[in-house]
Q: What sequence folds into this?
């Protein structure tokens, strides 16, 4: 298989699918009570936008109902930023993926439903053995729902190929989600299904060539 560029999904592909659910979201909830006392003026101005006396209660309610509130999303991004910067959070990118991203001579792009801002934070604070490394210099560009559309729509991949500036057939997309692979394939991309510890079983797994370790690339 020859390709000239790669587009990588994040959760379930380069890091465990549980990272967001079991690390990032609990971290945010753990910090909610202390937010009204935060010295970050950006956090304070976001809290004021909720327009309620009990902002902690309001936030907990939005989170428990899984409301996609833009102020909440921005607030979560800031809280995670503090968490990464303080060393309380590091991104558990798989060692083989870190190694590959560091060494490949092919340009690497990221496409995730998490915001571009959240993606950059994740790659800025990657856990690698005993240290935290910044993989951002190795990543050409980042795509999310706002820049490119939803991940199960073939049109999104057409836009991404156009932005990369290569024919779709020269780009390899890796993801743990077969619906995303199907959309990318539809747009002409080469695709491989990532199977990683903790990933959910994929129904139509046999339709795809599988990757369990980036060292084979
Ligand atoms: Mg995924």
A:
């Amino acid at each position: 298989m020859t390709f000239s560029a790669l587009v990588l999904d994040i959760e379930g592909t380069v890091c465990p699918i549980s990272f967001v659910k079991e690390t990032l979201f609990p971290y945010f909830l753990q910090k909610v009570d202390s937010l009204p006392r935060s010295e970050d003026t950006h956090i304070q101005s976001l809290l004021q936008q909720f327009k309620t006396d009990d902002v902690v209660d309001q936030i907990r309610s939005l989170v428990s109902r899984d409301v996609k509130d833009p102020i909440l999303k921005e607030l979560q991004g800031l809280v995670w930023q503090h968490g990464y910067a303080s060393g309380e959070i590091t991104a558990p990118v798989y060692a083989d993926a870190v190694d590959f991203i560091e060494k490949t001579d092919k340009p690497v792009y990221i496409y995730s439903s998490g915001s571009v801002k959240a993606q950059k934070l994740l790659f800025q604070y990657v856990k690698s053995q005993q240290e935290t490394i910044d993989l951002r210099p190795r990543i050409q560009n980042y795509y999310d729902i706002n820049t490119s559309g939803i991940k199960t729509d073939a049109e999104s991949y057409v836009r991404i190929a156009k932005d990369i500036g290569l024919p779709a057939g020269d780009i390899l997309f890796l993801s743990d989600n077969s619906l995303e692979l199907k959309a990318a394939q539809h747009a002409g991309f080469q695709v491989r299904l990532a199977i990683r510890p903790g990933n959910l079983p994929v129904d139509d797994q046999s339709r795809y060539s599988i990757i369990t370790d980036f060292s084979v690339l």
User: Anything to note?
Assistant: The chain has a mean pLDDT of 95. The two ends are 9 Å apart (CA to CA). Residues 9, 11-13, 175-177 surround magnesium ion (CB under 6 Å).
